[in-house]
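Researcher: I'm comparing several assemblies side by side, and this is the next one on my list. It has 398 residues spread over two chains. Same procedure as the others: predict the full complex and return the structure.
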Amino acid sequence: MTDVATARRSRITPEREAELYGAVLDLLREVGYDALTMDAVAARTRSSKATLYRQWGGKPELVVRAMRHTKPGAVGEIDTGSLRGDLHALVSREDDCVMEQNSALMRGLAMAMHTNPDLRQVFREQLIEPEMAEFGRVLQRAVDRGEVRPDCPALDFVVHMMVGGFATRALIEDQPPTRAFLTSYIDAVVLPALGAPTH
Amino acid sequence: MTDVATARRSRITPEREAELYGAVLDLLREVGYDALTMDAVAARTRSSKATLYRQWGGKPELVVRAMRHTKPGAVGEIDTGSLRGDLHALVSREDDCVMEQNSALMRGLAMAMHTNPDLRQVFREQLIEPEMAEFGRVLQRAVDRGEVRPDCPALDFVVHMMVGGFATRALIEDQPPTRAFLTSYIDAVVLPALGAPTH
């Protein structure tokens, strides 16, 4: 988060901010990214469009910020003492029902990213890169503990592996990802690829 | 392929069939799945709509059949003598340019699958399941050669791993998958997860 962004957002209360993000996510669920307009957000939240643009800059920024707001705490705060424990904790922060809702939103957004390069860029900068940096700290601790070799080539592909688990389950098997599925995927794929202990 | 489908399709020549599929893929690139109509396919290929419906059954079937037609030969025919060789051969059947084109088509279709359950079902039945069955034969040979343990839990997730490589590269890194990327992904992720030799 830049200082400018912090300063901009500090003009509204956290409660009002949460209310706004909730309305954005409701609209996203109802009409999808492409049909979502700043006019509709303004009407739904009794804000002026000028305020929305001043606070967030534009639609991609507002939507990505709202998605980020659904995240249950920072990945980097997870520290169970083992990589397996950390990765299991990572996919257990949400119950299956919340995970299904958020994963439906995330799939919708991934679809929209396909045809909206500006959304793709904001998504990458504001959501993927911060998550990857935090993920990097979880992995670095595993390397420091000697669970993963520092030169393990799979370290570059942890996000690819995880996305594969989430997306393939949803798209090809027509089932939302569940904690049970994701923990077995971590034990069967992610930890063995990293050469880390699986129990 | 059912006998009925074979009988239906046998009424047109392979050349005419290839021409039809080419036109469907052109339209898919031009307007996307949702805006593609059987009327447009009929006009572009100088066919009657009745013929198209009789031969293929509907839009999802016609589109999936056209996608399947772009596949460069069956996965099951690959047999290099090692799993690493087979998987590398698998991602080297197309050059990077063709792979980029087909992966753009496939991403577009994956987007459309999100909101078209009928397309999702046909895609799964006509493309994913046959590919997975052929993939299963490649993996079975690796098990028979002793390269992969028959109870290796990653055997259930090979498609998830591969989709993760393809999709994450395209969506998050904003780069199409290349042979160089996919072969390093196979060596870093897929083979180690399967406990198979990586060189």
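Model: For your comparison table: Chain A has two domains: 2-68, 75-194.
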